[in-house]
Design goal:
This protein is mostly helical and about 350 residues long. The chain has 2 domains: about 1-155, no CATH class; about 170-345, no CATH class. Helices cover about 75% and strands about 0% of the residues. It has 16 helices and no strands. Helix 2 (about 15-50) packs antiparallel against helix 3. The chain is globular and about 65 Å long.
Length: about 350
């Protein structure tokens, strides 16, 4: 047993929830961002502007989402170069075989393939053959074997959330908005979760509302401590920056979470706000304005996941734009500020509790 522990330590193979559930998942979201998400935005711009060159660029970027996710996961697991490069084939196969749940299949399979590749890396004199062979054979074999059922299960769960939101838009609007918003602020990837579940439609709109509430909420309510730098870093960056402060005083999480519980059903029941762009946008909030951009691209050119659920392109009216503005920006800012002011008066939030280091 001691020899096994020593071997795993030497190979930097760490079996932990943090490495797989936070580091790998977060890296996968970055891989998605740098392929599917940015590709969707560029393709939509090309289509709307009639520029075929941009449309082609976006299509190519979207087409390598599987390899991009797998390589990003390998990077997070500190894979050696030969393993890292071999994961491109693993990601392509897992994403293709996994169908709608491809990202979840890529996450699981890329982790296993990367760790197997790391185990044999530099252990033989023919490393240039052994390492890529083991990584690819293990990964592609698993993709053929388990990616389809993983994709089916993930797709079914995503459909369950989508259908439940349609049937109970008020209560599910609250639940999805709060849970996905909380996930965005936690050190896990709400974007990857939404992509894995193919969260679009009304459920995607609720997720956008919750994520925007967290980011805009923390940015506005902490303005007195963090000024403009904090407003930008949290409003366009990530509310995860507040995690150290949340650990010190969990009550600071109440205002944006209450705001998300309100904006979620406002999105689903009042404005019928749907996010039919790439599902990753559902979990991005105002990070780089990806949430609102996802809503916009979904209006003009729904993604494959949304189309499969019956979505269609629309010409947004003034009411649609008003709904997006209120749900993504104005309501989160006002509600979080009001709730925070009340908690400051109660002494639950004190001066400096929201200060970023």
């Amino acid at each position: 047993m001691e020899k096994v522990k020593a071997f795993l330590k030497r190979k930097n193979i760490v079996f932990s929830a943090k490495r797989y559930g936070i580091d790998a998942l977060g890296a996968m979201a970055q891989g998605l961002f740098c392929s599917l998400l940015i590709g969707t935005i560029i393709k939509t711009l090309g289509t709307q502007l009639g520029v075929q060159f941009l449309t082609d660029i976006g299509t190519y970027a979207m087409g390598v989402s599987g390899p991009a996710m797998a390589v990003a996961i390998g990077y997070a697991l500190k894979a050696d170069p030969m393993v890292l490069f071999s994961l491109a084939a693993v990601g392509a196969s897992a994403n293709a075989e996994g169908g709608a749940g491809g990202p979840l299949a890529v996450l699981i399979i890329a982790i296993v393939a990367a760790e197997c590749g790391k185990a044999v890396s530099k252990e033989t004199k023919v490393d240039i053959l052994v390492t890529p062979a083991v990584t690819i054979l293990v990964g592609v074999a698993l993709a053929k074997l388990i990616a389809p059922p993983i994709g089916t299960a993930a797709g079914a769960f995503g459909d369950l959330i989508d259908n439940a939101t349609k049937l109970q838009p008020f209560w599910m609007g609250i639940a999805v908005s709060v849970l996905v918003g909380v996930a965005l602020t936690l050190p896990i990837s709400s974007a990857a979760i939404c992509q894995v579940l193919a969260l679009t439609g009304l459920a995607g709109g609720a997720a956008v509302a919750g994520c925007c509430a967290q980011m805009v909420g923390f940015a506005v309510m902490s303005f007195r401590e963090n000024k403009w730098g904090g407003l930008v870093s949290q409003g366009l960056g990530t509310s995860m920056l507040q995690m150290p402060n949340i650990i010190k005083n969990p009550r600071i999480w109440i205002p944006p979470t209450l705001a998300s519980a309100i904006t979620g059903p406002v999105a689903t029941c009042v404005f019928k706000l749907q996010m039919n762009g790439a599902p990753i946008n559902s979990g991005m909030g105002t990070c780089g304005l990806c949430g609102p951009i996802g809503v916009w691209t979904g209006w003009l050119a729904p993604g494959e996941e949304a189309l499969a659920k019956g979505a269609a392109a629309i010409s947004p009216a003034a009411f649609d734009w008003l709904g997006m503005a209120l749900v993504c920006f104005l309501l989160p800012a006002v509600l979080s500020w009001v709730f925070c002011l009340a908690l400051r008066k109660l002494g639950w939030i004190k001066e400096g509790d929201l200060k970023l280091d």
